[in-house]
Design goal:
The complex is a heterotetramer, with 2 copies of chain A (233 residues) and 2 copies of chain B (218 residues). Chain A has 233 residues and is an alpha/beta fold. Helix content of chain A is 21%, strand content 26%. The two termini of chain B are 13 Å apart. Classes of the chains: A alpha/beta (233), B alpha/beta (218). Chains A and D meet through helix 4, helix 5 and helix 6 of A and helix 3 and helix 4 of D.
């Protein structure tokens, strides 16, 4: 019989999250971010967390909401623009920032979930990213050794999911969510639509339920667009 | 003394609600038959399915839906398919709570040998080395002695190893034994089996507590 | 405009395959194997190839057909049972065999396709698989360094595909096919059904077309079942 | 002298049938506008799409469908979505035939600096370090000089590097230059620009052949 991961609501889903923990949060820019979980983390008022997330939101949305409340001690990201409060905290030294090449960030999360403690990549060789890291040549090309990333909690957002924790993402809202789901000790998935068991095609599942410990149906999604670019009709 | 089904039945008692379980070929496969209905347990097969169900009804078999033993199977509601890299990400990343597999030899250190006999045709380790190197909870299902009557629970494995210091528990036709601190620890004896019979059949270091209960299997 | 990878037939798809090359072939047992491409490789009569494939087929099907014609010099696999001719050639020394843990095989193919030259895994530590390989402790646990695998040609078999090379596999016939598609210098995909461009849901594609150089609709699939296990009605 | 669109137009001439192309933010994005219709070219955006199409018609924008610049986009027939790990597998694994990106500085050795200015707010490298470390064919699109009129084509980059010895070709408002053997090689001059103007604006070692054609852009 399938293992149910379904919890009542976001409060139950975030139970056990504490100050000082390392959290992963899916999303690219504001696309595919776990809006409900972020709101709950703000409500919980936890402090001194380390957030692993490709970006840091904008001033008044996404991780920016946690930054406003000064809940984040350290960000591990690839790009943190578009956020004045972030800049202020970083320049004042309140916020520690670890910038990582985007592909290395994605691969390090996957590695964390896949039991690969370290791997070699050419990205960052010869730059300050390589400082203190082992360099080794493969096929005549220098590579640096990068280590796996894991988190106490991973928060991901999917389009559809079932009680077993199987997830399907929509379009480019997939981004970092699948790897972070793999790398969380406890992975919390919020979904736009929680469907009955057996409704998802097992062949179309992006994240198999084994990577998800808690799942709930979110609500009130704003899904804000960062750069609305259109052609006029 | 237990038969293969009895060993599987005893191992099924180890399974807890909410666990993902990988069952190896042979006796381990039988464990699925003894999981209480209603228990939330999902079977992972390393060729790419979570939520493996029983064999299909005659005529429903699908060449594209098999388990790691290449047997035709079915998928349960809530199942998912994935590629082999993702499958071993689950295994290596310790997302599977229990691994049950057979063995030719197990040592008192928890080493396991189950893939190669020198001088005989070597078929390969398949996924066994990944499973034993990664799983946190490995139970070996096997006969206590080989066909020549020699113990398969040894101080050191004589065959090429599959993994090192990884086996936590062994369930045989004679007993349940835990492995810790470099010794087998007798936990239970099979119905009708005496402690002395287990002692006689175990070549490795064996710790026997004062009182050893008999397995409770129906 | 989408890049078309469609070729006329299996002959066009296998053009350029030569003796001495390294070939990857998808499939697990006989499930999801590129039947049409294997038949063409037999017909071409190429010799001394190295085959990277999880298994070696059975005597009269799958890679067994290439073994019958003694076209394979070396097999890189995780499990090679169920094949008497394989056993004969291996014991006589005609055939070189490199046995690799299944998870390491899958990950090494993925690494080859992903530009990761090497990674650490616990699988095989303390066994003969670790012979000659670097051992390093991570989190107090020993791991061995494994290197990427690539191939001159990769042959994969999918359920559905389009001219762009996007692939969808069916159930457990997916297995090694996606990683091998990534790792082939030239990847040939044969599909049961070649559908018009735009018909595959971009959200459900398992292998994006960028990993496929040639695609054709196969025919005459036998899809043999190795172990027919059923419950009587 | 070219404007940004002119630079993009010239770079579009480099694109070949059958290529997958990754375009960075800024001038590189404009390159897509100059690909001849009917040419088989697919754009990869590293946040997870192959077969990126133009901006959506007003009202059709979808928050779940954006490019790496966070702009709303569309998907072409034959598109595919994937996760970030797979996306960078494509990039790192050299499955993308052409990468076009902007730069603050490029050195005669092919080094590129485009992510960090000491003393200023650092926003991060995003995917740029993965792209430049992996791609076999990198074209830099940039102005020949900075706002202070100083050359951006240097003997050594003064800013923190994004990648080492990776840039093959630079297309600026003044010229097309190849990088090899530790020098910039002048390939073409922009319409109305003299070789002398390029020499004056290039701080790094510049090799000028006897005859330098003018760019052919309509």
């Amino acid at each position: 019989m399938a293992i149910s991961k379904q919890v009542k609501d976001v409060t139950a889903a975030c139970s056990g999250v504490e100050s000082g923990m390392t959290l992963m949060l899916g999303g690219f820019g504001l696309c595919g971010i776990p809006e409900c979980s972020i709101a709950e983390l703000v409500r919980l008022g936890i402090q001194d967390v380390t957030c692993i997330s490709n970006n840091a939101g904008v001033d008044d949305f996404g991780l920016g909401l946690l930054l406003q409340q000064r809940q984040i001690r350290k960000m591990i990201s690839s790009y943190v623009g578009e956020n004045d409060e972030f800049e202020r905290q970083m320049l004042s030294g309140e916020l520690e920032v670890d910038l990582i090449p985007q592909g290395s960030l994605a691969e390090r999360c996957r590695a964390g979930g896949a039991g690969i403690p370290a791997f070699y990549t050419p990205a960052g060789y010869g730059t300050e990213v390589a400082a203190g890291k082992e360099v080794r040549d493969f096929n005549g090309k220098p590579h640096i050794l990068e280590s796996a990333l894991t988190a106490d909690f991973a928060f991901v957002k999917a389009w559809k999911g079932d009680a077993s924790g199987n997830l399907i993402f929509k379009a480019t809202a997939r981004n970092f969510n699948p790897m972070m789901a793999m790398a969380g000790k406890i992975t919390v998935a919020e979904v736009e639509e929680l469907v009955p068991e057996g409704e998802l095609d097992p062949n179309s599942v992006h994240t198999p339920g084994i990577f998800v410990q808690r799942i709930f149906q979110g609500s009130g999604y704003e899904k804000r667009i960062e750069q609305r670019t259109v052609q006029s009709r | 003394m237990l038969d293969k089904n009895g060993i599987a039945q005893r191992i099924a008692q180890e399974v807890r609600n909410g666990w993902y379980v990988n069952l190896g070929i042979g006796i381990p496969t039988l464990v699925a038959n003894y999981i209480p209905s209603g228990m939330e347990v999902e079977f992972q097969s390393e060729n790419g399915i979570l939520g493996m169900g029983p064999f299909p009804m005659e005529g429903d078999e699908d060449a594209d839906l098999i388990n790691a033993g290449k047997q035709t199977i079915t998928a349960m509601p809530g199942a998912a398919y994935f590629d082999s890299a993702t499958s071993f990400a689950m295994i290596r990343g310790q997302h599977v709570q229990l691994t049950v597999l057979g063995a030719m030899e197990v040592s008192q250190n928890g080493d396991i040998a189950n893939w190669k006999i020198p001088g005989k045709m070597v078929k390969g380790m398949g996924g066994a080395m990944d499973l034993v190197a990664s799983a946190e909870n490995i139970i070996v299902a096997m006969m206590h002695t080989n066909r020549a009557g020699e113990s398969k629970l040894l101080s050191n494995c004589s065959l090429p190893l599959t993994g090192v210091a990884c086996v936590r528990r062994v369930v045989t036709n004679l007993a349940v034994l835990d492995i810790r601190d470099g010794a087998f620890h007798l936990v239970e004896v099979a119905p009708g089996i005496s402690v002395e019979q287990v002692v006689a059949a175990t070549a490795g270091k064996l710790v026997v507590p004062e009182s050893v209960p008999e397995m409770q299997i129906s």
